[in-house]
Specification:
globular; TIM Barrel; 16 helices; 388 residues; alpha/beta; four-stranded antiparallel beta sheet
């Protein structure tokens, strides 16, 4: 991307021109996160620095409400972290910067997929960056683990390694793509239960946050909102100056000749027949409009996610939901019930979370005796309620 391309987009967004504000009006949104995504973003550190400076100076010049309510987010492999230009950028923006350095679990797991051209692993280099950032900038570093069929058996090992390396918040989610089989859900349940026991036995449950354990599992969603942010809450810009609902809609993600752009820096957003139709389509998505009846009726739908871009890629429509993660969601719910009810029991609380899913689906994932343990935990105490 050139600076001129970025500059045009920034000007268009901050001015809230008529040709863009029908989709996203920056003056009506309370805050913004500016996300630089690669490849490896720090390969273009000079450009990132120039774009950031322009964005900030323009917000201040315009007295834009974002001038005091913005964050910068960068995900990096950490290899260029100690470049003097990168260090200068971090120091200059440290109060608003959220930095994520990719670590794929322990050394063996990381070095199996992230190697230098000579075949050597990059784990030590990445961890050196992690430790420096934590100690010199007194910042908690971001982390995210994407769970896929190829690594589900390593979830416990990878997360414990990250915890031991100082991570306090670890975001985990299963990919939405097809490829999941029932045995993967069984594996995920045992991996998560083992993690729950690790946190409980080491008194880390108050200190460590794992997003995959969510507090209201086993309940039916009462919301009809489309929780996916690719419908006006996010805006992605590619190197050619095209706008997308999010980066997942770009050609690199959805495949050749399938990119789902909604405008560009020359015309704006939704200003021709094709992009106007796409904007209208995105605006129409609700939980119920995209979901099959099985999902609408599901008693444990809270926390079950989707990606409208993957819907488009796999199902041919942003408004037709892919449901390949159903069994994985069941496994997550069962593990979350075990985790939180164990905490309530540990605290001597009578409150319990209950399971409102289909028992046969649970029994396809875990043995009956294990399911009975979870049921017994939900029934202990005097109160059985999902809404504290």
């Amino acid at each position: 991307m050139s600076f001129e391309t970025a500059k045009k987009a920034i000007d268009q967004l901050l001015r809230a021109d008529d040709d863009i504000k029908g989709y996203i009006n920056s003056w009506e949104i309370p805050a913004v996160v500016i996300n630089f995504i690669g490849g490896e973003p720090f390969l273009e550190i000079d450009l990132i620095d120039q774009i950031t400076d322009y964005f900030v100076s323009k917000m201040i010049e315009m007295h834009h409400p974002w001038a005091t309510k913005y964050r910068i987010s960068i995900s990096t492999n950490g290899i260029l972290y100690f470049d003097p230009r990168v260090q200068e950028y971090i120091k200059k923006n440290q109060n608003v910067l959220g930095l994520s350095i990719s670590i794929d679990g322990d050394k063996e797991l990381h070095d199996s997929c992230r190697v230098f051209p000579d075949g050597s692993g990059s784990y030590e280099k990445a961890m050196e960056a992690v430790r420096h950032y934590m100690t010199h900038y007194n910042n908690e570093i971001g982390s995210k683990m994407t769970i896929a069929p190829g690594n589900v058996e390593h979830v416990y090992r990878a997360v414990v390694s990250m915890i031991k390396n100082g991570y306090k918040t670890i975001n985990l989610n299963c990919v939405y793509e097809k490829g999941w089989e029932l045995h993967h859900a069984t594996t995920l349940y045992w991996q998560l239960k083992k993690l729950a026991d690790y946190l409980l036995e080491n008194d880390l449950w108050q200190e460590i946050y794992l997003s995959i354990f969510y507090l209201h599992p086993g309940t039916k969603s009462e919301s009809n909102e489309n929780w996916c942010g690719g419908n006006g809450e996010m805006l992605a810009l590619n190197w050619r100056g095209r706008y997308y609902p999010c980066l997942r809609y770009m050609e690199d993600s959805v495949g050749p000749n399938k990119e789902y752009y909604i405008g560009d820096i020359e015309k704006g957003i939704g200003q021709d027949e094709l992009t106007a139709l796409r904007v209208k389509e995105l605006r129409s998505i609700t939980y119920q409009s995209q979901s099959p009846q099985e999902c609408i009726d599901c008693g444990i739908s809270t926390g079950c996610g989707w990606c409208t871009a993957y819907n488009y890629q796999e199902m041919g429509s942003v408004n037709k939901r892919a449901t390949f993660i159903c069994d994985m969601h069941y496994a997550t719910v069962l593990a979350s019930l075990y985790y939180f009810n164990s905490i309530y029991e540990k605290l001597g609380e009578t409150y319990r979370l209950s399971f409102n899913g289909i028992e046969d689906k649970a029994l396809a994932i875990i043995p009956k005796e294990e399911f009975e343990i979870i049921k017994e935990m939900t029934e202990d105490g005097n109160r059985n309620d999902n809404n504290p």
